[in-house]
Amino acid sequence: MNLQRSPYIIILHEMRDLIKVLSLGFALYGMKCTAQTVSGQVDGYDYVDLGLKSGTMWATYNVGATKPTEKGDDFAWGETETKDKYEWETYKWCTIYENGNFDQFTKYVITPGYGTIDNKTVLEAEDDAAKANWGIKWRMPTTEEQKELIDGCTWVQERIAGTSIKVQKGTSKTNGAIIYLPYDEMALYYSSSLSEEVTDKVRCICIINSPKIMSTQRYYPSNVRAVAVETALETYNVSFYSKDSVLIEKQVVAVGKSTSEVKYPFEEGYEFIGWSDSSFTNVKKDLDVYAQYREIANPTTVNGSVNGYDYVNLGLPSGRLWATYNIGATKPTEFGDYFRWGQTKPCKNFDAPYVYDEQATGLAPTKDAATVNWGSAWRTPTSKEQNELIDGCDWEWTNNYFGSGVKGIIGISKINGNLIFLPAAGEKVDSDLFHANEIGHYWSSTPNPEYDQPMTSYEIGFSDWGIFPHEYDRYWGRPVRAVVSIDLTKYSNISNQKLQVYSRNGNIYITNAQPNTKTQVFDMNGIAIAASETDGYGNAELSAAKGVYVVTVGNMSTKVILK
Fold this sequence. Notes:
Number of helices: 7
Mean pLDDT: 84
Distance between the termini: 36 Å
Strand order of the largest sheet: 1-2-3-13-6
Structural class: mainly beta
Shape: globular
Helix content: under 10%
């Protein structure tokens, strides 16, 4: 097994602060545990009612166990039987390379490069270990239900008197009912939910010092604590729909209980303002609930484009123009790609060992991710330019950037009021993503000149408590927010401050041109492949396949990249 990808390494990295205080919990061992609550049975398996808002009833012991203090069986995510070997080579839903690591996934694929995307994010019934082993009235919980379990109880570590068995004892904050989660030094409990960021990981409860929601690799062995689909309680169906009446999620909820949280779909150009019926917090009948939105203007300022990539003019003293989105992204709310300092290809599985250039004084164009990926008109900013950006804007953290669901930091220019957004994209080692939607790190091109720190470079760092310059090990993968490196007055392939030509979602858009002006799209061989005229407001939309094109608007031209 490759230790760099081991879930132990991933989890210990994320919980390093907790591990420092792990010894504090040992004093609790040896205490006598209060008996776990049993509220009823479904098909011969006990459940406990913890008084959770959603009405979810949790099994009192793991699948494969016969009592609350038994560990039970291990399962890989999406598999319904136990096995002797848990590696990518034996995982049901992937093909592998010769080195034993995964190549492509054959089901539950949400990100490019991992196989045919099917956008399945929750286990289907035939792949649910709880349902397969305990029957159709049981299933694996979603990550939202696991979070509700953790938040709805007070947790302590205990050891069963006279045994070596350790448990996390959860006591309901609502009704005092008790649930046990047994573990050794560490335990994982799978949800039915795929990770939101990448295809090869899933959400789970991890127990080291206390229960916490985390992500782990799909092949890894994990326990399953089931939830009851049907109990003796009266239940109703609550169906959540998008604004276009597409079913988002259907939940079975006990009478008088609340549904678990439902994530509304992001709609480009719209802000979510609530659900059409709020009575899903106290369900007394079948409900159909619809997401409601209001149209908003694009909040990010766009003043022009270079090589088809948008920039914003924040009126900074240096005149520096900043990209409106990250390298590898297509809009401000996307995280984009992650690069080790001085490398121009995104981080991936099994990256070659990183070689530190201790004599580096900056980034040459051939080692600059911005220049290599976006062209010579762009480069990674210096630390001085990043500091100018920090000082030149007022900054505000947002948990939901204009209804997108993306967290990050908004900068509003102190000089001209223009806006820039930096998503909290986290950081990577190989393809392992950490702290997404929690913190942000963006490389500069400036290495740390200190003699005792030749392996670090400067960056922007930020979280919900502020933005600051920082230095970090160059080995880590970071996003890059580029700057325009040229004098715009000498660059021909640029739309002016009024006229805008840009690509988005596979189309080419023209705005603020002269009305009824001829527009054409040429491939790089000079062959015209599309033509149109701007409407009475100076706007036009053209379509083309993925590629690099020259777009002409009257006697002006610019290069556009369709991704």
